[in-house]
Amino acid sequence: MLVQDYHFALAPRLIRNRLPLATIVAFWHIPWPSPAVLATCPWRRVLLDGLLGSTIVGFQTPDDRDHFLEACRRELGAPVDARRDVVTRGGREVLARDYPVSVEWPNRYASRAPAIDVCRSEVRRQLGLAPDCQLGVGVDRLDYTKGIEEKFLALERLFERQPELRGRFTFAQIAEPSRDRLPAYRELRARVAALADRVNRRFAADGWRPLLLLETRHEPADVYRFFRAADLCYVGSLHDGMNLVAKEFVSARDDERGALVLSRFAGAARELTAALLIDPHDVEGSADALARAVAMTAGEQATRLRAMRAIVARANAFRWAGEMLLDAARLRAPAPARPREARRPGLSPLYA
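RE: above sequence
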């Protein structure tokens, strides 16, 4: 059975107590903290013991896996075989492995989407942009880990440094409200909106706005229309297990056009090394990457996207699931043999 994400960290141990021979795969989608950060969590040993009820604990990156193994050694004193990525707990071996999550390939939304030229014209008309206006796109939940404020600061710096982009480049940020019952998230939303207003007050002219904040939920098909219409996509996560937006953008661009600006702190950066990689905390460096993305030639775009599309095509969602299932099958506990006399006479062993 598959247990997904941190919400259910205690579930593998509870399941193991009821079903001792079960094959349990727990997949941890978010980054696993370093030992120093984990040490601040009062429930760290309970969380570790809960996950170690699994047969396999899966992570997005090798760093996450290594941090988990080190935590088991430090916090629980559990024997760790780093060569085999195995930790022993209660006489059982638990495999810890990285399985980078991905998107389906071929992608259903990309294959069903309108042609690139149609998406470009429709999205620009929807946003009130001139047909030749370059378009940047961001797609994030309104969450403090996504670096939306830092992204807007980089865009502000870009327009300060390159006033010739006024009227020629607009950035559209799709920002779906998230956990807005929590004060911290409401405050984040207010800060993001205020920053977008500031950028627009400073640089807007003649009906054109540099930054469009779209605070509504968009269905996947609509998001892919934006991806196919965009000249660049900006993923500025401060800390992300993977970030599938980057891979979705790559999968959407069957024309091999567009540039990807990608945070080094997103798990996807380990695979999509042909993106323009940034430190989102570095506003000047991020503005440099944006300027380079806006000016990137069609040839360079094609070279970079061709490399990234090959990676996403090979390491797709089916491979992610398949590798976990293969490892689970390999480690599956053998069922106890049934006594021969318990079999019903006259039936093949297959049905007994």
